[in-house]
Structure formats: structure tokens, C-alpha cells
Amino acid sequence: MERVPERSFQMLAPYASDPALSRGRRYPEAEAPTRTxxxxxxxxxxxxxxxxxxxxxxxxxxxxxxxxxxxxxxxxLEVAQLGRSIARSLKLNEDxxxxxxxxxDLGHTPFGHAGQDSLNACMQSLTPGEHAEDxxxxxxxxxxxxxxxxxxxxxxxxxxxxLSFETREGILKHCxxxxxxxxxxxxxxxxxxxxxxxxxxxxxAQLCNLADEIAYNAHDIDDGVRSGLLTLEQLGEVPMFEHHxxxxxxxxxxxxxxxxxxxxxxxxxxxxxxxxxxHTRLRIAEQALESADxxxxxxxxxxxxxxxxxxSQVLKTFLLRNLYRHPQVMETxxxxxxxxxxxxxxxxxxxxxxPEAHGRSHHHAxxxxxxxxxxxxxxxxxxxxxxxxxxxxx
Length: 394
Ligand code: MG
What we know:
By secondary structure, this protein is mostly helical. The chain folds into two domains: 35-198 and 333-388, Orthogonal Bundle (Hypothetical protein af1432); 203-327, no CATH class. It is 60% helix and 0% strand. It contains 19 helices and no strands. Helix 10 packs across helix 15. It is globular. The termini are far apart. The model has no long low-confidence stretch (mean pLDDT 91). The site of magnesium ion has 4 residues, from loops. Residues 75, 104-105, 212 line the site of magnesium ion.
């Protein structure tokens, strides 16, 4: 019986990424009999070790602070859901969006941004001459690429997951010039080229960036209220939220508490999704895009309307001031930073404490960073307790 990839089920626009035109994998492989290249990428991400770890990694609230808060895993699933839904409306490639969304946070350290900032500071503090390959700091986007390119050990013939160019391009959302130059030396005209020569990633990659932002703005409100650090009254300061809260109350005058919160967030999410779809359609039509590559030559096309961009910025600023910099969050941030920097210092000075699989590198500092970045919150806490004898998180 003949098996064919199910690509015909989704009608793709001419500017969507077509798996049949993929720039391919770093190590050539035969096509799978029933799946397109991007479906296969998504499946490889889901079966990876790094993906399973996301369930025990912090988004904003530490993993052990409560069972109902978002983790990196549920965040990634929400990004994939929003991304696919918008992709279908725009006739972009849903499978590619899903693969990028599920992989986009694979390189995150334990303890969210606190962990990454601390690890970056540790790596930056190294003497460049002594650590030629190591002195380039730590970037979580670059680390996500490193996970899928180098660190996963699943296949007999190569390191990493050997994903398609388009998925890797989407994973590398930001990259410093220095790191882009290094990547470019290993892979000329590769995934880092646009950080040196200008240009954009595929529309699917652009969509994942925006879906990420829409997802965390919404779920951080939910988690913020759940944690008691934000109140519904305080959220009245945010015009976009207040607008949808009023809208929810007009439709359901007796609505209150959690259901009012959820309904307001739901309306806000839908409004943002429709805004992206409408505004992006306009921008694509203006450009008369004929191919996926044409979008790479242009500035970002998948975007909010200017009015929605402003509203979203107000919400982000509100969350930064009232949630991410809430004294209680800052307090755990300080402890988290200490766990990471203590671990880094110890593994640097006592390589025998690293498991053997991580300790054989020529580039010890990078091996230490990879090891720490791969840890879940609770593993990092336990390891810190083992090495230092005291609990940082009582
Ligand atoms: Mg994210």
C-alpha cells in the first residue's frame, strides 16, 4: 500500500513554508513514509528528554510553589495552541508552527529568567583567553538550538535531533552578534545568517514569537491572581483587561470571582488573536507575497495592529511592575540566582562532582553550563543541598 504524507489536508498559502521545499537537515535522512519533515520535527521534539523536563521548570512561579501554575511545558503547549489556531486562519504551516512552539523553550534553565541571568553572569565572568570557547555567556534561545543540534542523545548516527532548517531557524529567535558569527562559521548561510545580514525568519517563526507573547501575557495574569500577588481590582488599571472585564459583565451581569477572571482573559485572548490575523493579512496583501522566501527579505509581517501593540505594551509594563518585580517573586529570584551561581562555582572548581557524561568536554565551562541549564527546578535544589548541605528554599 502506498503511504503519502498527509500534507494535502491543510490548504497552504503560497507564502507558507512547504516541507517539500525545506532546506533540509544537517545530516541527510530519507523522508518518512507518512509524515512531512515538519511533522517529524514536532514528533522528535515531543519524544526528546529536554521536552519532558519542561514540566518541572519554572515559568514565573517556582515549580514547587503550587500545582496549578504554568510550567514551561504547559506554557509551550499554550503557545502551540495559539500558534496553530492563527496559522490555520492565515494558511501558514501548522506543523512547522507546532514544532517551533514546542521546542522554543527547551534551552531554558531552571528557575526561569532568574536562572538564565545568573548562568549568563557566571559565563560572562570567565577570563576569555582561558575559556576561548566558553566566554560567550549564556542565551536561552541559543541553548534551545544547542539542545536540538547537539545535546539530545537519541539517534545512532548523529548528536541532537537533526531537525529541519526551518524549525531550527524558528528556535533561534534572538542571537547576539558574537554568537551569530560563531554559528555562521560552523554553518555558512545557516540559521544565524539573518542576525548578521538582516532579514526575517519564516512567517511561521514570526508567528511563534507573537503567540509566545500572547500566551504569557494572558497566563501570567491568571497565575498572578491565583497566587494572590495580583488582584482583579489592580487589573482595572490595565485598559485592555478592563475593557474585556466590562464586556464580560455586560453579557453576564452576575459574573464574579474566578469565572469573571477567566471570561475576561478569554475575551482578551480572542481579541488579540483576531487582531493578529486581520493585521497580518493586510500586511501580507500589501506585499503581494508569492513565496515563503519572499517574507525572509522583508521586515516582520506577523504583527499586532499599532493600537493592539500599544495596549499589549501597557499590559506587559503592568506585569513587570506588579508581578515579575513583586517582592515575593524577587525574593525567590534572589535565592534561585544563588543556587545557580553556587552550583556553577562548585562544578568549575570540582569537576569530579559533574556526572561523567558531562565531565569529558574540552570546554569545561560550557559543559557545566549545559549541565546546569538542563536541570529541573527541583533537581537543582536537591543538588545544591547535596553539595552545600543547607536548603536555600525552606
Ligand atoms: Mg516562551
